[in-house]
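User: Hand in any protein.

Assistant:
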Amino acid sequence: MSLAVRAPALAAATGLPGQPTTARPLSAPTTVLAAVVPASLSLALGMWGIRRENTMWGDEAVTYRLAQRELYQLWETAQQVDLVHALYYAVMHVVFDVFGAGLLSLRLPSVLAMAAAAAGVGLLGLRLAGPRAGVTAGLVFALLPQVQKYAQEGRSYAMVCALIAWASYALVVSSSRRGRWRWTVYGFTMLLACLLQEFAAMALAAHGVTLIVSRLPKSVLRAWSVTAAGVVAGLLPLAIVSAGQSEQVSWIGEPVRPYPWLAAVMVGLVCTRAPLRSQGTVRLTALAVPLLLLPGALLLIVSLVKPIFVDRYVLFSDIGLALLLGAFLEYVHRLPRYSWTVYVAVPVALVALAPLSSSLRTPQSRSNDATTIGAAVRTEGRPGDGLLYLSSQQRMLTAADPDDTRLLVDIALARDPVASNTLAGVEYPAAEIAARMKLFDRIIVVRAAGIHAPEDPREKAKRDTLLHHFRAHTTNEVNGAGVTLYTRNVAPTLRTGPHSWSAERAVSNPRTSEPLPRRAAECVTPGAASSSKGRTASQ
């Protein structure tokens, strides 16, 4: 037999680096190992410190509050705000109905989803580059700091990551086997990911690039095109309606900071310089590189016009990074002098990342801490004090526990979030806010750190009234916010002395029989009172 004839056979038999080989039949034990080992590590890491010292941050507080609303209320809220997360809130509503509302039930779905994602990455690596690359890729994925962080987050990112991992697996299987049902599974999984988070559609584009560079038969490209069109058609109504809620991402400011993503891209591209093993109709690099590079690049391009890049929006890019790192470690293992490397790489990484992993499980790892902020408000305030948020959206910073603000009067709030089907409620007009503020001797002001209140009449009225009629007394700087006690320059009360109606008695304490003065009574709306009772019952 000539060398030319024997070369392909040798490549297939030895797994010659850089050459695609024919995928061998996968045994059941190998498949189970590639899925279970990474999933087990991810699950263990996810359960470690899952309560994060019994705190939650602002975005999780949004999930926590909205998921406790009735489904019809969620639907009405989604028509005004946060439509892009409506499906996730509905899922969490069911979870809370079954298991009760709490930190564990808030975060456990994300832990399980990320474990499923790690299993999917392991199976992808197994199918694309062999058993060792599969197990290693899955373990690397579970260890990535961003993956560890969002595995313990009561938001949709872990679920989206899991769905894209398994959609990618369905894509690889569908490209090499006939059967419409496989493409149906792929399309349904991708659509579900996109409905949970619209940015998942960028993974669909990455999959298209994968198939094009893989030079697959036209029948495969045609099947993917039809499936992708169905996904886009299913997503289109959500995209059109949610475009009217684009002010929700107005908090993303300049400059855009894509440095962690850029570092991941650089590491991934360095891995591609090695002759990575590949098997089957789709090369590992053909899937991993577009998935790692394209979504973030598209967001950066859009950010040239409007800042929109946030690393968690492209969390699923870590699937591509993990595949490349797993294949690279498998390549190093095949080098005679370094065959031991793969057996120590993951344990060494686990130890090296231990300090960072531990820090991710502290309240300081998030941009704010709604639990601590609420506790600071409770500490600073007295029953009947005024409560003011700069701006209204910061109301969610104290949403972790309604008891923190129950005895205070939310001065600017006309309709509470539940009654108004909004995230932060509806506020009074500017003039009325200013007038109501002047009825209080003490006001607790909550201001998010590093975020400027929007320039609108209401916020201007708040700032001007504080400037001209109050003075800052004490400020408690907590993680993500400042809680400041403002006191009147000249108290508006008619009586003075220890028995005067000062701020702490502006509203009667429900636990006492103190009377309610007319001035403060005007600041308590029936809607706010009934809402407070309703929230008490829901706890």
